[in-house]
Structures are given as structure tokens and as C-alpha cells.
Amino acid sequence: RSPSEYSRYWGFENSEGSSLAQTRALLRQADTFHQARSAVIYALFVPRDQAKGLNAADFGSAQSARLALNRRLQNAAIGDSDQLLLVLVPSAGPPVQQQLEVTRQEVLQQAKLFRMAVSDPEDDISYRPLAQQMYQWLFAPVEPDVQRLQLDNVMYVVDPGLRTVPLAAMMNDDRFIVERYGLSIIPSVNLLQTSFGDPPPPPQTVAAGADQFMQQENLPAVSLELAAIADSQKSTQVLLNEAFTQTNLATVRAQSQAAMLHLATHAEFNAGDLPSSYLQFWDSQLTFDQIREMGWEDLELLILSACATAISSPEAELGFAGLAAATGVESSIGSLWNVSDVGTLALMAEFYGHWSQTPLRFDALRRSQLSLLQGDTQIANQSLLTARGQIKLPAEWNLPEFADFRHPFYWSGFTLVGNPWW
User: Fold this and answer.
1) Using an 8 Å Cβ cutoff, are 227 and 221 in contact?
2) Shortest CA distance to 176 belongs to which of 364, 373, 6?
3) Contacts of 17 (CB under 8 A, 6+ apart)
4) Nearest to 266 by CA among 310, 313, 318, 308
5) Residue 228 CA to chain centroid, in angstroms?
6) How many whole angstroms from its chain centre is CA 359?
7) What is the per-residue pLDDT for 64?
8) 84 and which of 27, 100, 308, 358 could share a cystine (Cβ 3.0–4.6 Å)?
């Protein structure tokens, strides 16, 4: 239950934790440079008798909280009856600690059901009580403090079993949390890659992927997705189908010094060790034990628009939540499940449109999710209507005359991991 989980899984060197002062300094810098108020919400499970003895002052950051907890609980086994503890770490003032009378077993069972219900676009009812319950457990206890601090963005550091929960779909009554706050997942504060200063210019971008596969489901909207990115990000190089090879990607990145990489291809975060998970190229698979050899340390943002993460797998969670830190990338955005091909095109078209207006990654993702949730992005008359205009869709796709993407299946699975700013 520490960053060593990630270092063991990914095979990188563990680092020291951040102190309370260091975490506050980081958050204050973000407040100042990004004009966005941020905080860390830490959700962990602790034995009932141990939780009462914990001091909020121990929870100076996600990492120091974990270290403090480990010191106290080093002889305590993980138990189903452990209680949920929330700790809010703001840029100033003491951490806020809330212990809940709910067990690990109860929370993780509901979290699994929540993810399964949200990922069914045909059911618009079953996920709602689960979404409201997750909100009451993972956010409501610290919500008064979030409102008092006037936060714009919260970074969650969570225990195993919660790392692939679609947090954006949590609901307070009939309102989704993403309607009020930007959200992201971080493995720990000390693993954040940050830079502060003026907003960067539009990055050089490589957009790559395939719409045809030999042994996997085709992704027919990928060519339109890459074209939409190239239209939005003028300095974009596209690698499609036969051109989408590991060698070509390395060559293009070296020539362009691209700071952003968008991969529209199958990516699987599976149970088991690193070779069990992979990115699919046109002619090969890049397994996760090889991914750190790709030299992505200078990337600011990695987007995996067609990935899927196994449910109830600790390794899949470590893969999804640890990818950015392990590869040296500042941030990654990926989907928790296989979103429909047109739904992915819709969200990605909106993301790049909004990102051209705000350099804040959490804000661009949030705005794109709201565009789908609020029905602004829709299919009408064989076209995808977005904030940037229309994208004509092929007639052979046999799409309905009208359709929207309001259901959280289409937008809540896309999750920002790592640096939420720029």
C-alpha cells in the first residue's frame, strides 16, 4: 500500500515521500501559476482500532500518509473489515481527516458493481444509486471543506480496488461530480512530474493508430479521430495503419521532438505481470515490460483512446494508474473500458477543441465530458456535431438518425492520471 507497489510492478526505483510542507508548496504553486485551486483527496482502508489513533498531522501528503500508516500498521494484515478513511490535503491549513463506518469489503463490492453498471449504455437506471453511494463515501465527507476552499480540481490517491473506479460518474442526487470539479488520479504526490511557468505553446503532436486489425475488433472511427486531431493541432504528424509501427513512431518522434502522443489503438491493462499488458501496433504488440524502452520521458501527455482495464485486478490497476510515472510522462489519459468507436471519436474531438482554449488538462477533459453529458455533442443526419463543427460519418456505419452521448458509459471512463495542469 505504498508507491513501492508501483515500483515493484513497473520495475523503477522507489523514491522518498513528500513532506507536508513540500506538498503544500506544490499545491500553492499550482494555485498561483495555473489559477486553479487544487487539493489531494486520499482514500485508504485502515483497521478499525488503528484508525482512531491516527493523527491528521501524519497525513502531510499522499506519500507521507502512506508511510505513516505503514509504520503504524506494519504488522497488520489487510482485512475486509478495515474502515474507509478520507484525508483532504489542501495548499494551506491542516489536513482534514474523516473516518467512515464502512468497511473495505462493502466499498470494494459496491465499487465493482458501480463500474459494471456505468459501463452498460443500455441501462440508464441501475448505476444511479451506486453513483450516489460512491459519492457519499468518497467525496461527501470532505465536501464542506472542498467548498470552503473553493477548489477547482481534486487529485485522488486511492487504495487498491478503487484505482479504476469512474470517479467522474459519482453523483450527488441527480448531479454528477464532474459538473462541479475537475478530477484526476495520481499514484502518489512524489511521483508527480510538474513544471510551473507560462502556458506552453501548442505542442508538437504525433497521432497514431489503426482502424483495421488482424485478430482484434476493427476501430473504423480511428481515421476520422486522427484527422480531427490534425485539424485541431496544426503541428500534428499522423501514422495510420501500415505506417503505425514501433520503428516509424520512434523515427517521427525523434525528428519532431513531439511532446504529445495520441495512440488510437487497442491497449489492454490485464491481470498478471508486465508482459500480460500491451499496446497494439499495426504489425506487433508492445508489451509493458518493453514500454519504458520507447524513450517517452520527454512526453507531456500520452493519450490512449481505446484502452481497457480488467476489473478487480491489482496488476491492471497498477498498470493504468502507474503508466505515466513509469514511463516518465507528465500525464496520461485513458479509458477504463472499451467505449464505442463513435463515442471515443466524439470525446476526443471535443477534448482537442477545448484544449485549444485552455491549457489545463483537467479542465479540457472536464469540458469535453460535459459536452457529451449535456447533449451538446450528438449524432444528427449522419454527422457528428461537436463544438468545432461537424464530422461527416460514413453511411455504411448504419448509425441512427439521432443519438447523443449523455450516458456516463461514453464519457466517465476517460481518466486523467498524473499532472492535471500543464
Assistant:
1) no
2) 373
3) 3, 61, 63, 64, 66, 67, 188, 189, 190
4) 308
5) 22
6) 17
7) 47
8) 100
Cβ atoms of 330 and 418 closer than 8 Å? yes
Alpha carbon distance 88, 419 (integer Å): 18
- Report the percentage of the chain scoring pLDDT > 70: 91
> Regarding beta strands 153-158 and 38-46, do their DSSP bridges make them parallel or antiparallel, or are they unpaired?
parallel
Dist CA 416 CA 393 (whole Å): 28
139-153 burial: b if 16+ Cβ within 10 Å, else e = bbbbbebbeebebbb
The answer to whether 82 and 45 have CB atoms below 8 angstroms apart is yes
Give the closest residue to 293 by CA, choosing from 333, 334, 259, 246.
246
**Rounded CA separation 305/287 (Å):** 17
DSSP per-residue string spanning 147-178: HHTT-SEEEEEE-TTSTTS-GGG-EETTEEGG
Statement: the pTM of the whole predicted model exceeds 0.85: yes
What 8-state DSSP symbol labels residue 372?
A: H
**Which of 174, 175, 156 has its CA nearest to residue 166?**
156
Nearest alpha carbon to residue 168 among 150, 157, 158, 154: 154
Percent of all residues in the chain with a pLDDT value above 90, rounded to a whole number? 74
CA proximity to 301, closest of 372, 211, 182, 206:
206
